[in-house]
From TrEMBL:
The keyword Hydrolase applies. One of its GO terms (molecular function) is hydrolase activity. Residues 190-257 form the AB hydrolase-1 domain. The keyword Hydrolase applies. This is TAP-like protein-domain-containing protein. It comes from Mycena rosella.
Amino acid sequence: MLVASCLILQGFAIGAVLRVGGWESHHDYASPINSATGSQVLSSHSTMLSSAFQFILISLYLTSTLAASDFNWQKLTADTKLNWTSCYSSFQCSLGFASIAIVRLPSTSPKSQYRGPILFNPGGPGAAASTPSLGVSYSTPTISFFKTEAERRFLLPSAEIVIYPSLNASSNAVSKTWGDFGLLGQLALQSDAEHHLQHMSTDNIARDMLQITQAFGFEKLQYWGISYGSVLGATFATLFPDKVGRLMIDGVEDMDSYYSSNQTAMMVDVNGSLEAFFDGCNKAGPDICPFYAPSSSEIAEKLDALTSSIKEQPLPVVAPDSHGIVDFGFLRNVIFQSLFAPYDPAVGFVSLAQGLAALANGNATVLYGLIPVPSFECQTSPPPFHLNNFESYTTIACGDPVPVTDTVAQLEEYWLNAAKVSQFADLVSSSRVLCAGYKIHRPGRFQGPVGAKNTSVPLLLVGNTLDPATARAGALKTSKAFPGSVVLTQDSVGHTSLVAPSLCTYGHFRAYFVNGTLPAPGTVCPVDAELFPSASGNVTSKRRLPSVEEKRLLDAGREISSLMRRVVTSRAL
């Protein structure tokens, strides 16, 4: 049995957690695919995969709860050696030489069976997550564009929630957003007297990951990257192709698009994802989907009419812990967020349908509750260690690429062209407007292209059939840059494969990480979930009854999906 410990590097730059090992492996690593059902038939050795999910659950749980913990990082002293202190109940914490905050779950296995660290990155950059990066989250020197928390809330009221500015909210939305982000860019310059920000970059994080791996006595990286984590993984494989032990990237971005601050190519699945809502609602019927209409096109028309109505006449909401307005931008964000996690009971398609139906009847409270909003409370200046989503996202996502020098007119033209590809280009294109205001870039940083003629181990890339944030086309394109790599497709809607549980997908993950086995080219895995589930909610039983172990894996997969949703909803522009 090969088991290792869990290690977490706190920060935002990779937006990740780092897991050390976590595999229980036996002699039989690969289970066959049942050709009749398309599902993975898990052998008695699937306890290894359970361990894999334990590390993700631990990682994502810490990702979503570290900010609320009362552990005092300030009592730790930074050192070139990792000196461990008990923290977070059963974990251990340390600060590296650059005061990079690190958390680990110690292994209980003999040292002879230790297989090394697996770095896991749930995306961003800017998710409330853990990572080896100077200046972010619990690492120091801490970065903040703002002198006080009051200033942050005044200038960036959506910092704690996912609210992307809509460039279609008004006739001057682009120019106003450009001005707002230009101000924030000036604040970034003002806050960077010691010139730390230029060093927060993806290529530096890749170098950190290699050093971390080597510090644990291993020469080759084992890595699982999600969304932005795919950029980090592909960048690492480009810079260090001979240092790849296992490298799996999921929700793969178009790398050229990332390094040019042009997300248009990644939006090509957005319309299809929304159509999946219309089709699923229509097929589910009015009992399961309250926004039902006799045809998918009629549901689309209902949504267009509702959106136009809200744009003309927003609705106020007074909730127990907060209050606000459901306007055009808020409605657009709720719908877009639902496309990311359509299977999730809290924010997915079923909840979206309920919120839209209530909104059509004049009740905005249900829809308002689908995006977590901060409660109204007084906060003092930020502590030395704090979660800084906005700064982290901006510094990396805008500091990595070629500088954006667009004028307001050029940005207007950019998003209108992107709108020909995606119905939600008004939201996604705001990231380019943000980068137009950011002026800190390190000369000589890596800006692409990614690719390597040969990596020491082939890469595994994963893409959903419909992903509103990172279209599967990105995985196919990136795979061509790394000969020998394979793209595994999961037949699901949403952002990354973790959006829905799939025994088939899990089986391929296991085979790759344990012994490097890649799926056959063209492999497509079904999911064990439905967009509009029946009353029983048991999808797997429609093919066959799941074993006790499979049920445990599916339950873990659903919890992972829920935790991923919490990570996603902690991001904001």
